[in-house]
C-alpha cells in the first residue's frame, strides 16, 4: 500500500481517491502519528498543508528515516518540507500562485514524467515557494513563474525522493493522475491490482479468519453501507450472521416491508421488528430537535440490545462504518490531531462487550457502491439517497404524531416517485419532504381549507458536508405540488427550499 501522511491539506482525501482510482490501495494517517514502516508500505506521500514550513508550529517528519525504506513524494507543503529539511530555503512568494499554470519538463527519461506532455497544465495553490534547493536536488520541471515546479534527489537518502509544487490530485492538473501513476508504478514498483473484485476476495477471507465459527449480529438500516457490509459478512460466514431491521415508525412509506422483502431475497437472515408504538410513545409531546435525536438513538439501542441478548453466544457486532467516518484529519488550528470518531450505532460496542466487524472501514462511499455492484447488490440499495438515522422525526418540525407521519409519508412518496419517474432521482444527491408546523388558508372548489404546508428539499452534493439546492425544473415542481395538494388531504400548500449548505443544513432539524 501507499501511505499518505496528512499535513492538513483540503486535498488529502483527493490524493487518496486518485490513487485508489488507479487501483492501488492507500491509507491516510495524520502526519504526527508514528509511522510503522512495515513491508506492506511501498511508498509514502506527504500532503499539502495550511501551514507555512516557516511557522514555528509547522508539523515536520523525519524524511530521511521515511526514505530509508521506500520512495517518498512530497506535494506542495510536502515538497517544501523536503527542500527545507535538507538545507534549502522556502520563502513567501513575491506573487502568490493560485490556479492554472503550465509545467514544462525536458528530460524524456524522467520516470515521474513518462507520457507527460512537455508542456502540461497543472494546478497551483501556494503562498510560499522554494527559493533555494539543496545542492544534491535536481530540478525536473518549472513553470513560467517559478523555477522549481518539481524536483528529485537520489543521493541523500536510500530511496529516491520527489517533490511537486503543484497538486497532481486535482482534475485541473490535466495529466496529474498519470504523474501519480508514474510514481506508483515506475518508482514504487507497484502493480495496479487493487480492484473491487480483489477487495471482496480479501475481505471475505479476512472476515472468515477473524470471526471463525463465531456469530455476528448486525443492525440494518436499508442504506447502502449497512447493506453492503452485511452482504460481505454473509458471504464470509453465511447463516452465522444475524441481522436486525427495526421499524421505528419513522421510515418512508412502505419502506419497512419493501426493504425487508429485498433483504430476504438476498438470502440474509433478517429479523424485522415492529417498534413503532414504543418510538411514538416516547416521542409524544417532544418538539426539541436534539431531544428527538437522543430519544431515538437511545430507543434504538434498547431494542437492538434486547434482540441481541435473545440470540445466544454472539461475539461480534457488524457495522457499516466507512472511511470518512474514521479518518483522523490534522486540525488546521494546530498540529495536534483532531479525531473524528463515529459509530453507525453509537454507544453499542462499548455497552455490549462485543468485538467489531467493519468490512467497509477503509472505503469511500463511491467505492462501497462499486463493491456492492461487484457482489450483485441491487440498485434498489446502491442508488438510494442517504436517509438520516432519526428518519422522518427530523422532517416533522415540532411534535410528532402517527397522523403527521402518515401525512408526510404520502406527500414524500409522491415527490420521490415523481423524481424517479422523471429521471431526476439519480441527478440529485438527496431529496426529501418536510412537514412544517404551520397551517394556512386555501380554497378547494368552493370550500375554504386550513391545512398544513410541506417543503420539498433536493440538493446536489458530493459528501453532504456542503450542498447546493438542486435546480429542479419548474414543470416538475408544478406537477408534484399539484399532485400533493390534490391527493393528500391535510396539505394545501407546497414550497421549495432554495437554501444551500452552508449556511443552511440539508435537514431542517
Ligand atoms: P445536515 O442536515 O447536517 O445533514 O446538513 C448532512 C447529511 O447527514 C444526514 N444526517 C444524518 N444521518 N443520522 C444519520 O445517520 C443523523 O442523525 C443525521 N442527521 C443528518 C442528512 O440526511 C444528510 O445526508
TrEMBL record:
InterPro entries xrefs: Class_I_gatase-like, GATASE, GMP_synth_C, GMP_synth_GATase, GMP_synthase, GMPS_ATP_PPase_dom, NAD/GMP_synthase, Rossmann-like_a/b/a_fold
GO molecular function: ATP binding; GMP synthase activity
S-adenosyl-L-methionine is among the record's keywords: no
Domain GMPS ATP-PPase positions: 194-384
EC number(s) per entry: 6.3.5.2
Gene Ontology cellular-component annotations: cytosol
PROSITE patterns: GATASE_TYPE_1, GMPS_ATP_PPASE
Record's catalysed reaction(s): XMP + L-glutamine + ATP + H2O = GMP + L-glutamate + AMP + diphosphate + 2 H(+)
Keywords: ATP-binding, Glutamine amidotransferase, GMP biosynthesis, Ligase, Nucleotide-binding, Purine biosynthesis
Residues where ATP binds: 221-227
Active site (catalytic residues): 76, 167, 169
Annotated metabolic or biological route of this protein: Purine metabolism; GMP biosynthesis; GMP from XMP (L-Gln route): step 1/1
UniProt enzyme class: ligase
UniProt xrefs under SUPFAM superfamilies: Adenine nucleotide alpha hydrolases-like (SSF52402), Class I glutamine amidotransferase-like (SSF52317), GMP synthetase C-terminal dimerisation domain (SSF54810)
Assembly information from the UniProt record: Homodimer.
The protein's name: GMP synthase [glutamine-hydrolyzing]
Phylogenetic lineage: Bacteria, Pseudomonadati, Bacteroidota, Chitinophagia, Chitinophagales
Amino acid at each position: 500500500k501507499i501511505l499518505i501522511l496528512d499535513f492538513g491539506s483540503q486535498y488529502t482525501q483527493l490524493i487518496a481517491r486518485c490513487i485508489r482510482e488507479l487501483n492501488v490501495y492507500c491509507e491516510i494517517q495524520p502526519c504526527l502519528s508514528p509511522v510503522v514502516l512495515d513491508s506492506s508500505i511501498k511508498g509514502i506521500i506527504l500532503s499539502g498543508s495550511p501551514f507555512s514550513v516557516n511557522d514555528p508550529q509547522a508539523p515536520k517528519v523525519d524524511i530521511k528515516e521515511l526514505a530509508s525504506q521506500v520512495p517518498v513524494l512530497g506535494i506542495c507543503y510536502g515538497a517544501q518540507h523536503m527542500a527545507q529539511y535538507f538545507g534549502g530555503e522556502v520563502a513567501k512568494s513575491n506573487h502568490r500562485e493560485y490556479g492554472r499554470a503550465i509545467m514544462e519538463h525536458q528530460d524524456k527519461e524522467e520516470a515521474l514524467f513518462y507520457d507527460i506532455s512537455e508542456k502540461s497544465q497543472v494546478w497551483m495553490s501556494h503562498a510560499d515557494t522554494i527559493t533555494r534547493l539543496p545542492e544534491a536536488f535536481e530540478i525536473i520541471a518549472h513553470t513560467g513563474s517559478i523555477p522549481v515546479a518539481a524536483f528529485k534527489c537520489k543521493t541523500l537518502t536510500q530511496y529516491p525522493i520527489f517533490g511537486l509544487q503543484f497538486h497532481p490530485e486535482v482534475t485541473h492538473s490535466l495529466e496529474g493522475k498519470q504523474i501519480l501513476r508514474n510514481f506508483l508504478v515506475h518508482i514504487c514498483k507497484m502493480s495496479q491490482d487493487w480492484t473491487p473484485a480483489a477487495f471482496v476476495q480479501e475481505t471475505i477471507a479476512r472476515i472468515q479468519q477473524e470471526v471463525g465459527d463465531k456469530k455476528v449480529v448486525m443492525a440494518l438500516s436499508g442504506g447502502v453501507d449497512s447493506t453492503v457490509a452485511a452482504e460481505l459478512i454473509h458471504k464470509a460466514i453465511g447463516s452465522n450472521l444475524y441481522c436486525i431491521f427495526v421499524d421505528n415508525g419513522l421510515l418512508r412509506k412502505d419502506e419497512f416491508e419493501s426493504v425487508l422483502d429485498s433483504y430476504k431475497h438476498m438470502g440474509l437472515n433478517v429479523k424485522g421488528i415492529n417498534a413503532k408504538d414504543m418510538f411514538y410513545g416516547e416521542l409524544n409531546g417532544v418538539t426539541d430537535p436534539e431531544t428527538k435525536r437522543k430519544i431515538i438513538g437511545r430507543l434504538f439501542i434498547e431494542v437492538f440490545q434486547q434482540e441481541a441478548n435473545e440470540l445466544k453466544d454472539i461475539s461480534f457486532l457488524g457495522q457499516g462504518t466507512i472511511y470518512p467516518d474514521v479518518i483522523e484529519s490534522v486540525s488546521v488550528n494546530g498540529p495536534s490531531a483532531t479525531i473524528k470518531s463515529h459509530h453507525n450505532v453509537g454507544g453499542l460496542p462499548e455497552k455490549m462487550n462485543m468485538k467489531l466487524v467493519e468490512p467497509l472501514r477503509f472505503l469511500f462511499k463511491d467505492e462501497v457502491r462499486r463493491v456492492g455492484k461487484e457482489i450483485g447488490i441491487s440498485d434498489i440499495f446502491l442508488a438510494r439517497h442517504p436517509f438520516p438515522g432519526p428518519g422522518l422525526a427530523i422532517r416533522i418540525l415540532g411534535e410528532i404524531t402517527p397522523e403527521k407521519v402518515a401525512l408526510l409519508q404520502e406527500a414524500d412518496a409522491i415527490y420521490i416517485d415523481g423524481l424517479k419517474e422523471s429521471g431526476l432521482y439519480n441527478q440529485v444527491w438527496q431529496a426529501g419532504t418536510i412537514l412544517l408546523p404551520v397551517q394556512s388558508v386555501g380554497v378547494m372548489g368552493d370550500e375554504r381549507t386550513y391545512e398544513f404546508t410541506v417543503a420539498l428539499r433536493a440538493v446536489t452534493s458530493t459528501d453532504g458536508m456542503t450542498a447546493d439546492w438542486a435546480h429542479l425544473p419548474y414543470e416538475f415542481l408544478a406537477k408534484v405540488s399539484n399532485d400533493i395538494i390534490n391527493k393528500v388531504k391535510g396539505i394545501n400548500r407546497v414550497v421549495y427550499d432554495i437554501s444551500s449548505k452552508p449556511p443552511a443544513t440539508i435537514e431542517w432539524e
